[in-house]
Each structure stands twice: as structure tokens, then as C-alpha cells.
């Protein structure tokens, strides 16, 4: 009895979470411009999607921004985490306080403050300003992911490696780096996810010339419902599912390997 | 680790000053300036922008944002707490599967998910057709208050579930068994042991739903059709359409004050800083 109730609860909540996504997927194959009754199977929205230069351009910008922001914020964040970890002076507190601001302040406030700065400084809004904004809100998450890894390390692990005859380069890549790698990886993943998914901050720092996927979807959704967006979301959802399955297969292989 | 010096963090310190501290100060400064005659470059230092916000129209808007965010937070909590308990009662590997299933929708773009609800709720959408079969004709749920709150619940629900699940999972089942052994009934065990032990997770979850909900402008724009303006919409409008940055800055300051007050209260309840980073991965 309890089991039935439990499965029913899980079923309902999963229905709530997945229903909108399923509807998008189903309607992306529907041969009608309105989301009414079923009018037959078609792939024309997919064809039209790949002929839409505006959407493809937005996809390109989204990926460029995410890759640059993730790379820069992972490298800068990891190096800065080392420095913050080593801070013995009174600087540590202000550093962590400033670092926490983008995490705690609402996106819209981050967006308008950065926009004000860029306009105040006379910078032209475009790809550069979006990338700066994304790096600014990504680094804090990388630091929050990496710093605990350093706190967990033995105090003199790096020097111990040097004493045992490692060159500084070897000590870094063979001793230190593997220890902090899980933090760096999850920091990079968080940064990438945040950058891909961000709308609000990009919206305020983009200006007129550059539009990423979120901004494009927002303007299309406001203008009314467009089946091309359904096709796009189906492809994106498909990519996420394939990625998840691949990760799953890999980790299962890893477990077998260990066994 | 003495081979690494703290100065390798200095460039990032400079970055934070330029792109985090200065912009915030610029907006604080803007909020105290006003240009009543619209003459170029003539600004006076005043509290006018804050006074303007005291207008009943804006106060009602602030009240509405607060109310919607609180309702959305409560609904998320009412669903997530029992659900978290149910998930914890599963065997280990099925717990992980369940949590992954709950997170996957988060990886679909936030705007696409909101847009999907526009499709579902619209007059020709599935829910209206279903209601039509039950005899309710021409019900369009899109562009209503309920749609806005539903959008908040849907988009921010995982932020509530994850901290609650993490907190519940940490509770040692022996503690609960000990309470029952020592004569507590099920209700007492729940109120006196389970709830206090999971309180940090509850507070953290409530904050992580409340903060994005109170400051959103996307959900109210898309699902409310612009009929139900929230604080976020007002800020967006002042900055992007009306170009009144001074008033917009003042509203942002009010919003930030509310959020830091709520954060302060949360900190008083749990006695420590909120854990907001990295919970989705």
C-alpha cells in the first residue's frame, strides 16, 4: 500500500516536471503552425530551423561565449583559489565577500550594474561585454568549488614532493593537480552550465548586435509560439540525454574496471 | 604550500574591484542622483528616487512580488519536503536515479521550459482542451496570476528539493529509531527530531527559491503577459525602455535590501552561512 502511494507520488511529480518538455517534443513533429490538434507528422520545422540564419548565429554565439567564459574562469578561478588559500593577511575576508556577491545578488541586479559600468566607461556593447559579464559571474563558482579542495590538502604536500626530488612542474602536475582536479572539473561544469543557460545578465550586457540563444528564444516567445523553437528544444534535449547516457556508460565501465 | 604566494590572487582581486565592486557602487550612486529638468549633465544629489518609490502603485507592485515569491516558496516546500522523505526511503542506487531524473529538466534552457508552459496553458493547449472535455469551455490559463506562480514553482522546484534531500539523507536513521524506542510517537519524532535536523536544508531551499522568484521578470513577462508587473519588470522597464536609470537604481537597491534582510533572517535561524554553491552538480 505504501509502495503504491510512493510510486504514485513519484509518477505525478515526474509528469509535472516532464510534461512541458514532452509537449515541446511532440509538437515539433506536428504539421501545423498552431499548437492545436494533431495535423500529421512532419520534419519541416527542423529543415526550417537549419535554414534560419538568425537562430544558427545565436547558437554559435552561445557556444563561443560559454567556451571562452568557462576556459578563462576555470584557469583564473583555480589560480586565484591557490592565492586565496595562501592568504594569511586580512585580505581573505574581503576577497571571499566580494567573490560571494555575484552568487547572492539577483541576476537582474548583476545585469544592470554591469550594463551601467559598460555604458559609463563608454564601452561598446557586444561580444566582449557579454564575455566579460559571463567570466565575472562564473569565476566565483569555480573558486567555491576549488577552494574546499585546497583546505583539505596536507599543509606541505607540494614541498614534500619537491624534497623527494620532483621538479616544481612534476610536483604540480603529478601531486597537486590530481588532488584538486575534482574541484576544478565540477567548477568548470558549473561555469559551462551557468553560461549556456544564462539569459538575464546576457540580456542586459548584449546590446543590439549580439544575440545568444536565450535572448533569441525570449524575443521569439514574446512574439508568439513558433514551432521552430520546438524543433530547437527537441534537439537540445536530445543532446543532453545522449550526453547523460554516455557519462553513465563510462562510469559503469569505470566501476567494472575497478572490480 | 609555501611555494605559492598570495599575490597570484591579486589580478582577480583587481577584476572583482572593477567588475563587481565598482558597478555596484555606480548603481548606489545613481540611485541618489536625479535630473528633474532633463537637462544634460545637470544632476542633483537627492532622495527623490526613493521617495518616488513610496507611491502606492509601486508599493503594491513590491507587495505583489513578495507575495508571489512567498506563495511559490511555500508550494515548493509543501511538495518537496514529503517528496524528499519518500526519496530517502528508497534504496541507495534508486535514490540517485530519482534525483538525476528530477534534475534533468533543469538542463533544458530556462526560457524553453517557461515557453513550454505557454504552450501548455494557452487557449488551444492541452490543459484547456482537457478542461473543455470536463465541461469548462474556453478556459485560458495563460496570462493569469496562477500561471506566473506556476512558472516560479516549476522553474525553481529543484532548488528546494536538493538541499532538503541532502539534509534528510544526512540524518542518522538510528536517531529516529531511538526516539521511537524512547516513547515518542510518530508525530513527536517528526516534529522534535526530523524537522530540527533538516532545518538547515529547509532554510537553504526556501532561500534558493525565494531569491530568484522575487527578482524574476521573465516569468511574469511570458506567463503573465505583462499584466502582473513585478519588481524585476519595473527595473527592466526603467533601464531598457524608460531610460530612467536613477529610479531603476533606487528600485534595485530596495530589492537588494529585501534580499539581504531575508538572508540575514535565514542566517539567524540556521546560525551559519548558506550553502548555495555547486548543489546542482
**CATH T-level topology of chain B:** MetI-like fold
Largest interface: which pair? A-B, 91 and 84 residues
CA-based gyration radius of chain B: 23 Å
Task: Write the element-wise H/E pattern of chain A from the N-terminal end onward.
Answer: HHHHHHHHHHH
Low-confidence stretches of chain A: none
Shape of chain B: globular
Query: What is the CA–CA distance across the termini of chain B?
Result: 29 Å
Average pLDDT, all residues of chain A = 88
Taking all residues together, what is the mean pLDDT of chain B?
Answer: 87
Written account of the structure:
The complex is a heterodimer of chains A (259) and B (281). With 259 residues, chain A is mostly helical. Chain A has 11 helices and no strands. Chain B has one domain (23-34, 44-270): Orthogonal Bundle (MetI-like fold). The longest helix of chain B is centred in the first third of the chain and has 33 residues, at 56-88. Chain B has 281 residues and is mainly α. Chain B has a two-stranded antiparallel ribbon. The interface between A and B is large, with 91 and 84 residues.
List the helices and strands and how they pair.
The complex is a heterodimer of chains A (259) and B (281).
Chain A (H helix, E strand, L loop, with lengths): L1 H26 L16 H8 L1 H34 L5 H13 L2 H14 L6 H26 L4 H7 L4 H30 L2 H6 L7 H11 L3 H32 L1
Helix pairs in contact in A: 1-11, 2-11, 3-6, 3-8, 3-10, 4-6, 6-8, 7-8
Chain B lengths: L9 H22 L1 E2 L9 E2 L2 H6 L2 H33 L3 H12 L6 H12 L4 H8 L11 H26 L2 H9 L4 H30 L2 H6 L7 H11 L3 H26 L11
Antiparallel strand pairs in B: 1-2
Helix pairs in contact in B: 1-12, 3-7, 3-9, 7-9, 8-9, 9-12, 11-12
Amino acid at each position: 500500500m505504501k509502495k503504491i502511494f510512493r510510486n504514485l507520488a513519484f509518477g505525478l511529480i515526474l509528469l509535472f516536471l516532464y510534461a512541458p518538455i514532452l509537449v515541446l517534443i511532440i509538437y515539433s513533429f506536428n504539421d501545423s503552425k498552431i499548437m492545436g490538434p494533431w495535423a500529421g507528422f512532419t520534419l519541416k520545422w527542423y529543415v526550417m530551423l537549419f535554414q534560419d540564419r538568425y537562430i544558427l548565429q545565436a547558437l554559435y554565439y552561445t557556444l563561443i561565449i560559454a567556451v571562452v567564459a568557462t576556459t578563462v574562469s576555470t584557469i583564473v578561478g583555480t589560480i586565484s583559489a591557490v592565492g586565496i588559500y595562501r592568504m594569511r593577511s586580512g585580505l581573505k575576508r574581503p576577497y571571499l565577500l566580494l567573490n560571494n556577491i555575484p552568487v547572492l545578488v539577483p541576476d537582474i541586479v548583476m545585469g544592470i550594474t554591469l550594463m551601467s559600468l559598460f555604458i559609463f566607461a563608454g564601452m561598446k556593447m557586444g561580444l566582449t561585454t557579454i564575455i566579460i559579464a559571463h567570466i565575472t559571474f562564473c569565476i566565483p563558482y569555480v573558486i567555491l568549488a576549488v577552494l574546499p579542495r585546497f583546505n583539505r590538502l596536507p599543509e606541505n604536500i607540494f614541498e614534500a614532493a619537491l624534497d623527494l626530488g620532483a621538479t616544481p612542474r612534476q610536483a604540480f602536475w603529478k601531486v597537486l593537480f590530481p588532488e584538486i582536479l575534482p574541484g576544478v572539473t565540477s567548477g568548470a561544469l558549473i561555469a559551462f552550465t551557468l553560461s549556456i543557460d544564462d539569459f538575464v545578465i546576457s540580456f542586459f550586457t548584449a546590446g543590439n548586435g549580439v544575440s545568444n540563444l536565450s535572448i533569441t528564444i525570449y524575443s521569439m516567445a514574446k512574439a508568439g509560439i513558433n514551432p521552430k523553437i520546438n524543433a530547437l528544444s527537441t534537439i537540445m534535449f536530445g543532446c543532453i540525454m545522449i550526453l547523460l547516457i554516455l557519462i553513465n556508460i563510462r562510469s559503469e565501465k569505470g566501476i567494472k574496471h575497478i572490480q | 604550500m609555501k611555494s605559492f604566494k598570495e599575490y597570484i590572487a591579486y589580478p582577480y582581486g583587481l577584476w572583482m574591484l572593477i567588475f563587481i565592486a565598482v558597478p555596484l557602487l555606480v548603481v548606489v550612486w545613481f540611485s541618489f542622483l536625479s535630473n528633474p529638468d532633463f537637462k544634460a549633465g545637470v544632476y542633483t544629489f537627492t532622495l527623490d528616487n526613493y521617495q518616488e518609490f513610496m507611491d502606492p502603485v509601486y508599493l503594491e507592485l513590491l507587495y505583489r512580488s513578495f507575495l508571489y515569491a512567498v506563495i511559490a516558496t511555500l508550494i515548493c516546500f509543501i511538495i518537496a519536503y514529503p517528496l524528499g522523505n519518500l526519496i530517502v526511503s528508497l534504496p541507495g542506487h534508486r535514490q540517485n536515479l530519482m534525483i538525476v531524473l528530477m534534475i534533468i529538466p533543469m538542463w533544458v534552457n530556462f526560457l524553453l521550459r517557461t515557453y513550454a508552459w505557454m504552450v501548455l496553458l494557452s487557449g488551444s493547449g492541452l490543459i484547456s482542451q482537457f478542461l473543455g472535455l470536463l465541461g469548462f469551455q474556453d478556459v485560458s490559463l495563460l496570462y493569469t496570476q496562477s500561471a506566473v506562480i506556476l512558472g516560479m514553482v516549476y522553474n525553481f522546484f529543484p532548488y528546494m528539493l536538493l538541499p532538503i534531500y541532502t539534509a534528510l539523507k544526512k540524518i542518522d536513521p538510528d536517531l529516529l529509531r531511538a526516539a521511537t524506542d524512547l516513547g515518542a510517537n510518530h508525530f513527536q519524532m517528526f516534529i522534535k527530531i526530523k524537522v530540527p535536523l533538516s532545518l538547515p536544508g529547509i532554510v537553504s531551499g526556501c532561500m534558493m527559491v525565494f531569491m530568484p522568484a522575487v527578482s524574476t521578470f521573465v516569468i511574469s513577462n511570458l506567463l503573465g503577459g505583462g499584466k502582473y508587473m513585478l519588481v524585476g519588470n519595473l527595473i527592466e522597464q526603467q533601464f531598457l525602455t524608460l531610460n530612467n536609470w536613477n529610479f531603476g537604481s533606487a528600485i534595485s537597491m530596495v530589492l537588494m535590501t529585501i534580499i539581504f534582510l531575508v538572508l540575514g533572517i535565514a542566517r539567524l535561524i540556521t546560525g551559519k552561512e548558506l550553502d548555495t554553491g555547486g548543489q546542482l552538480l
